[in-house]
């Protein structure tokens, strides 16, 4: 068992509860953690034996392009897509942050974290 992480991904996207947020957009950060068996890839040095980081990034980017009202919904979609693309992974953890959320005061970011294990456990 091992972990693959893509940390610090940044996107400009059009998410938010308020219509105005979906029009003007904002900067978002995403951290993605995948738990899977990395032993075969470690022994073989073969990309086909592991999770391709480029594919993971593409999945996150595609989900970031589709507007969502809630960070929770966005994170849920990312997990669904990752688990669909890679049926052999054991679990996915995603953190989605909105930078400078419109709260009426200083807040560097609002962030959610979701975890799902294979077999439906959440």
CATH superfamily descriptor: GTP cyclohydrolase I, C-terminal domain/NADPH-dependent 7-cyano-7-deazaguanine reductase, N-terminal domain
CATH architecture type: 2-Layer Sandwich
Q: How much helical structure, as a percent, in the residues?
A: 25-40%
* Tally of structural domains: 1
Mean of pLDDT: 94
Gyration radius, to the nearest Å? 16 Å
Number of strands: 4
- CATH structural class: Alpha Beta
What is the string of SSEs from the N terminus onward? EHEHHHEE
Strand order of the largest sheet: 1-2-3-4
Strand content: 25-35%
CATH topology: GTP Cyclohydrolase I, domain 2
SS field, number of helical segments? 4
Low-confidence stretches: none
Query: What summary fits the major beta sheet?
Result: 4 strands, antiparallel
Shape: elongated
Protein name: 7,8-dihydroneopterin aldolase
Catalytic activity: 7,8-dihydroneopterin = 6-hydroxymethyl-7,8-dihydropterin + glycolaldehyde
Keywords: Folate biosynthesis, Lyase
InterPro entries: Dihydroneopterin_aldolase, FolB_dom, GTP-CH-I_C/QueF
Kindly summarize this structure in a few lines.
The model has no long low-confidence stretch (mean pLDDT 94). The protein is built from four helices and four strands. It has a single domain (2-117), classed as GTP Cyclohydrolase I, domain 2, CATH 3.30.1130.10.
Descriptive notes:
Catalyzes the conversion of 7,8-dihydroneopterin to 6-hydroxymethyl-7,8-dihydropterin. Belongs to the DHNA family. There is one protein chain. This protein has 122 residues and is an alpha+beta fold. The protein has one domain (2-117): GTP Cyclohydrolase I, domain 2 (2-Layer Sandwich). The chain has four helices and four strands. The chain has helices spanning 19-24, 39-44, 53-65, 71-85, and strands spanning 2-13, 26-36, 91-99, 109-117. It has a four-stranded antiparallel beta sheet with strand order 1-2-3-4. Helix 3 runs antiparallel to helix 4. The protein is elongated. The chain starts with a strand and ends in a 5-residue tail after the last strand. 19% of the residues are buried. The mean pLDDT is 94.
